[in-house]
Design the sequence.
């Protein structure tokens, strides 16, 4: 494949929350993402799929500048959040990551209590004026993450004492606690059993009315179940993006078709 290509489908959105415009990503001399342009609409759930190493996580991490933490990593092109260039000189990455929160593959609670895991973000961002407000934020975040009833009597016990699925919901509560606009999820269910996975998928559906959600997944069934739109990446290029139903029932690109029919990847 040459470096010039056109993404098949509908990369544009009438009401974009996020706009990638010609985004490329390099690790040292190696290019991992090639000239990706994509709108992600407000309150949409978009799934990123594609074979291992195609750049899904790398592209996801450009949306909240998580790649800044990798010394060799360089991003070119524009990434806009509500029209603002997130790589602009005035943007504070810590503030950005409160607006664009992230949930990782492996649940990673802090080695603190359940309460402190959720209270941490509001505390460092100065969101609560007093303990009562902080308690309310912790409760409402745990409610939204569907965990409150399971933990309300053990808030001051360690977060790592929860089951894997509960820990992942705790991480989602921690993300929600700082009032993000966008939630990035990098294979959020890959370390979970089917029941815990189903619970996270239900939660994604519930959260989608309030947040824009971007999910990297290896599971095409999961992408089909949870997302409105699906983006197919191949060797660092965004090959196709469209309504999930269209991508899975009548893909417009041969590479997408090969992947979803199991001929590749
Ligand atoms: N920190 C890094 N330093 C150097 N190269 C990297 C780094 N992270 C990723 N890469 C490379 O960038 C390319 C894209 O990797 P990335 O992890 O984004 O793909 P992916 O589609 O998310 O893969 P997977 O599905 O296996 O998680 C790969 O060739 C990978 O080896």
Sequence:
């Amino acid at each position: 494949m040459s470096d010039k290509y056109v993404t098949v489908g509908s990369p544009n959105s009438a009401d974009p929350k996020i706009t990638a415009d010609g985004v490329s990503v390099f690790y040292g001399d190696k290019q991992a993402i090639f000239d990706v342009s994509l709108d992600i609409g407000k309150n949409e759930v978009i799934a990123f799929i594609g074979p291992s190493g195609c750049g899904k996580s790398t592209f996801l991490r450009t949306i909240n500048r998580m790649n800044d933490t990798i010394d060799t990593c360089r991003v070119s092109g524009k990434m806009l959040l509500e029209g603002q260039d997130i790589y602009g000189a005035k943007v504070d990455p810590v503030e950005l990551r409160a607006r664009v929160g992230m949930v990782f593959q492996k649940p990673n609670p802090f080695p603190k209590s359940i309460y402190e895991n959720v209270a941490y973000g509001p505390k460092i961002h100065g969101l609560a004026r007093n303990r009562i407000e902080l308690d309310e934020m912790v409760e409402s975040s745990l409610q939204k993450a569907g965990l409150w009833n399971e933990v309300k009597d053990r808030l001051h016990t360690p977060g790592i004492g929860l089951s894997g699925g509960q820990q992942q919901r705790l991480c989602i509560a921690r993300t929600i606690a700082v009032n993000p606009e966008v939630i990035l999820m990098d294979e959020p269910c890959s370390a979970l059993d089917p029941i815990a996975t189903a619970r996270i998928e239900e939660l994604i559906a519930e959260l989608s009315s309030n947040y824009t959600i971007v999910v990297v997944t290896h599971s095409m069934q999961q992408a089909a179940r949870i997302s409105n739109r699906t983006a197919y990446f191949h060797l660092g290029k965004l090959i196709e993006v469209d309504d999930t139903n269209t991508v899975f029932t009548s893909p417009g690109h041969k590479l997408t078709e090969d992947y979803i029919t199991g001929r590749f990847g």
Remarks:
- The longest strand covers residues 16-27.
- The chain has one domain: 8-260.
- The two ends are 17 Å apart (CA to CA).
